[in-house]
Design brief:
Blueprint: H1 2-7, H2 12-26, H3 39-60, H4 62-82, H5 85-111, H6 118-122, H7 126-132, H8 138-161, H9 167-172, H10 175-188, H11 192-218, H12 225-249
Helix pairs in contact: 3-4, 3-5, 3-12, 4-5, 5-8, 7-8, 8-11, 8-12, 10-12, 11-12
């Protein structure tokens, strides 16, 4: 206000420049985090990454895939600790992603033929994730927990539709036989009762997404955990739909055969 009054004597140009200076002081420019994309975008990208990178990798080299999970964890911790402020959140996100990556490597590398072990293995870091929600690792914990919730819904839908019973046969079959078996398993989902189950599961996930987005809009500006959780759940739903489509039309691209 003082700047505006003192500039008024110099004419309208001085008044205008005074207003600009006041606005600049009142609204400092915030650094752009993670380039041009926000955390929800990167969270979604990390959900998609295992489909195209981890799935083929873990089939051939499960041990090195597990080691890469430890690399992700180390990079996440280091980034969160010493990187510039706008990249610290991405470091926390990587820590959560490393938990999902490690669990996926363990299960798909050695236990894939046992579908009932899928969720317990994925949940190996659950106590740490719940505890970490109150720490600087909140974003990573939100990513991991949302990913785990999406996995739980997917496995539940598979169990209710009868697809899970066919899982061991698909995993244990040769590449040539697995293609037909996977198509048969996917066809189970097209039965009326199965479609109803899958649709209901999708609706519930969408409700969770909307809830997380609502909480994100109400939470503090520096709390991005709810937005990350919403992005992870929505991307999981889209990936499940894509997987079903590929299983029906192009099983060789599904990542399972």
């Amino acid at each position: 206000m003082v700047t505006v009054l003192s500039s008024h004597k110099g004419g309208s140009g001085s008044l205008f420049s005074g207003l600009i200076r006041n606005q600049a002081l009142a609204e400092p420019v915030q650094p752009i985090a993670l380039g041009m994309a926000g955390l929800p975008f990167w969270a979604s990208t990390l959900v998609v990454l295992p489909v195209f990178v981890q799935a083929p990798w873990v089939r051939e080299q499960p041990f090195t895939s597990c080691l890469f999970g430890l690399v992700l964890l180390s990079v996440g911790v280091i980034t969160n600790s010493i990187a510039p402020k706008q990249w610290k959140d991405f470091g926390a996100l990587l820590v959560g992603f490393s938990g999902s990556w490690l669990a996926g490597s363990l299960f798909w590398g050695w236990l894939a033929i046992h579908p009932l072990l899928h969720l317990p293995v994925e949940a190996f870091a659950l106590p740490l994730a719940i505890t970490g929600l109150g720490t600087r690792w909140r974003l990573g914990c939100a990513f991991y927990l949302a990913s785990l919730l999406g996995t739980a819904f997917t496995d539940l839908a598979m169990a209710l539709t009868g697809v899970m019973a066919l899982w061991p046969a698909v995993i244990g079959a040769s590449a040539s036989d697995a293609t037909g078996l996977l198509q048969d398993a996917a066809a189970y989902v097209l039965r009326p009762t199965s479609l109803l189950t899958v649709t209901a599961t999708g609706v519930i996930i969408v409700q969770f997404v909307q809830y997380c987005r609502s909480r994100s809009s109400l939470s503090a500006a520096n709390d991005k955990a709810w937005a990350v959780a919403a992005a992870v759940l929505l991307t999981t739903l889209l990936i499940d739909g894509l997987f079903l489509l590929l299983s029906l039309l192009a099983p060789e691209l599904s990542g399972l055969v």
